[in-house]
Structure formats: structure tokens, C-alpha cells
Amino acid sequence: MLRFAPSPTGDMHIGNLRAAVFNYIIAKQKGEKFLVRIEDTDLSRNIEGKDKEILAILNLFGLLWDDLVYQSHNFKHHHSFAQHLIKENKAFYCYCTKEFLEQKKQEAIENKVAFRYDDAWAELEKQSNLKPVVRLKGAKESIEFYDEIKGHLQFAPAEIDSFVILREDGVPTYNFACACDDMIYNIDFIVRGEDHVSNTPKQILIQTSLGYDKKIGYAHLPIILGESGRKMSKRDSASSVSWLLEQGFLPQAIMNYLISMGNKTPTEIFTLSEAIEWFDITNIAKSPVKFDIKRLRYINREHLKRLNEDEFALLLQSKDTTIGAIGKIYLEETSTLNEIREKIEMIFSPKDIKKLYENENFEFECIELFKVLDLLIMQESKILDDYDSFKNEAMKLSNLRGKKFFKPLRILLTGESHGVDLNILYPYIRFYLKDILRIRGENDISQHI
Ligand code: GLU
What we know:
Layout: E1 2-4, H1 14-30, E2 34-38, H2 50-60, E3 67-70, H3 75-87, E4 91-94, H4 98-110, E5 133-136, E6 143-147, E7 151-155, E8 163-166, H5 174-184, E9 189-193, H6 200-209, E10 217-221, E11 224-225, H7 241-246, H8 251-260, H9 272-278, E12 289-290, H10 293-305, H11 309-315, H12 321-330, H13 337-348, E13 356-357, E14 360-361, H14 363-378, H15 387-398, H16 402-414, H17 422-429, H18 433-436
Parallel strand pairs: 1-2, 2-3, 9-10, 11-12
Antiparallel strand pairs: 4-5, 5-8, 6-7, 13-14
Helix pairs in contact: 1-9, 3-5, 5-6, 8-10, 11-12, 12-13, 12-17, 14-15, 14-16
The structure holds glutamic acid.
Glutamic acid binds near residues 6 and 7.
EC number: 6.1.1.17
GO molecular function: ATP binding; glutamate-tRNA ligase activity; tRNA binding
Keywords: Aminoacyl-tRNA synthetase, ATP-binding, Cytoplasm, Ligase, Nucleotide-binding, Protein biosynthesis
């Protein structure tokens, strides 16, 4: 079984989503189940509703789980495993106070040595501190494992001293709950962020201390860097999956991008089911990857191009195929749904003819042309049927030529002074001309006529 183990403590980060996608793909490739485990053991950091948000995102991306568990439901198992370890003398109660440990840490800093918990301290404060934690006895031998991305990794015993598995309130630590649950659910392979590399030997030690000798496979993903070249933090808005969705990036494009980061892929643009055919975690580069929003924009546009007009319209919250067709035309100069929405809104909003377009104001020409177009539309003239006859007639009646005709025409039809080919756009806006031909401001056009 493969698993994705998010903590409901904040927004879903793209690094988390990337781990979820890879675990899901590998589960499908191996024909194994995919478990979602909400790691809600850090009660003080849990945020109400974040679990639902994470599940909704997984759903939206098509990462459907076979099983869902909340880690806190397994507390009873964690406790019985801890009791077992105590009985076997592999874990012990530690009564050290925080102040005592802090003082030992300070001493280590002053002596310029790495801090290491000494098992002899365990009961020194037994009289004054009634609330012990439980620690697992540190490693006696080095612990090694093979990481599919980083290669062979080895940790000396000195790096793994006796560490806490149950806090003083009895709540299991992340490492303990995680290692127990990976055993309980018979997890085979784990993909997660490289910030967990140093946790892995601890989790292996917990499992071997419990007599579990199954070799779990690991792949720790390199961190994602922001545009600045520093680790992408929660403060970088593009690191939040919800933010990217709000900007109008498609789930399939975000997924395509996350799979292709630091990877060799047979094609640039692909779907999740295509990736399941060829994905190989060992191809993921060891070095950190930079989040490149320009590349994501390109991939998004390519996925939008693959949609038909009806699908496109639905994404623009319209049932009208024509809106989808207009959206597709605008892909020439946009990359996200929001940008396309903005263009369509401009077409249908009253036009700001007082605005300076490229340092030139076409207010007078717009008014002249408006009068002509208004008349043509009122007459429901046949001339409106195709762009050429419409344009020729409008030019003739308005007496405007060259850019003094074309710029105002474009402004009146699209709200912009340059953009997509009007010849291509016209057939789709033809039946909306009445709605489109409106001018903004208190100086309504009627006052000029
Ligand atoms: N809850 C941990 C996290 O979100 C899970 C890490 C793991 O996959 O073990 O980082």
C-alpha cells in the first residue's frame, strides 16, 4: 500500500501535492491501494476544516483514495506499541524537565559539541516531575537505507540518540505515530519531501525495535525553490495549491507541471493516466528545482487548447458554446482562465472610449463609428452576416480609414485597441453585437448623437 500523509495544519503546499501525485501514480503502477492518512496528532497545530480542504483538493486532482484514516483514531495502537517497547526495555520513561534539557543544550553549545541525550538522565528528576515522556532507546548501530532519488544514505548511531515517542500528555510524536501506522497499513514505498530525510532512520529504528523487518522503499523529493532561488515558503503565494486554482490554472496542468519538474518525460504535455504509463521516480533529479510560473502558464495554455468549446464554456461558468469558442480564440494571448474571463468581460462591458489607447484617444472616432454600427444593428442588415461586408459597410458609412477606423472598431467590439484577429472573432460575437456595443460613462453616447 502507498500513502499520502498530510497534516491538517495549513494550506496544501505544491510540494505536498507533488508527493501525493507520485504516491498515487506508484500505487496505480504497482496495482496497490492508495491510503490518505490525515496526520492530526499535533492537536495544538490542527486547523479546523483543513482536512476537508485537503481532501477536496485531492478529489479535484483525481487522486482518489481507497482508504482514509485519521491518525488520532490509532492512538490506542500507538500506546500499546509504546507499552510493548517499554516492557521489552527498548523504551523508557524520561522525567527530565524542559529547563534541565535546555541547560544541557546550552552546555553542549559552550563545549562546542553536538547535543546528545544521555540515557543516564532519565530519572534524575523523578521526584520533582510527575509527567514523564517516553523515549525510544537510541541507535546502537548505524542505520542505512536506499533512497530512490538520493541513493544510499547512512546515519551513525551518534546521530540518533534516545528520542521522544510519547509526549508527557501521552500524545505520540510524529515519528512514532507515522512509523507505527506505516507498519499497521503495510506501506511498501514512501514518497515525501526531503525535509523528512532525517526522520527516516528514526522511523526505521522504531519499526525494527518493534520487530518489524519489512524493508520499506523511500524517495525523498528535493525542495521546490521560489523564483528568488530560496526555499519556497508558505508566504510565496504560488506555493499554495488553492491560490494557483484561484488564478485559473487547471488541475491537470498543475499536475503535469509538478510531474515534469526536475524530471525527464517522454512528452511535454500529458495527463495523469499517461504519466502512470511511464513515470519512473528514479528519473527525478537530486538537485532542488525552481518553481517556474512561466512554464506552468505554457503548460496550462496547452491543456486549455486540448479542451473543446463546450468544456471550455463550462470552465468559464457558461453553458454557451460560443463563450467557449471566444475563450479558445483568446488563448492566443492568455494562459489562465482568469485572464480569459477578463478578456470576455471586456468584450461585454461598456467601452471606455475616453481612455488613451497607445497615447492616442479615439473618442471622436468611436462615437462616429458607434452611430454607424448602431444603425446597422437596428436595421438587422444582412451586411452583418460576415465580417468583410460588415467592415466595408461600416468604413463607408463612417468615412473613417486606416487606424482611425480599425482601432475604434476594435475598441467598440473588444474594449482593447489591439488583440486577436477580428476576422476570426467576429462570427462568434455577431449575435451579441447589441450587448457589446455600449459605451461607458455619464456622457452616454445618446448625448453625442
Ligand atoms: N505529516 C507529514 C507531512 O505532512 C507526513 C510526512 C510523511 O509522509 O511521512 O509532512
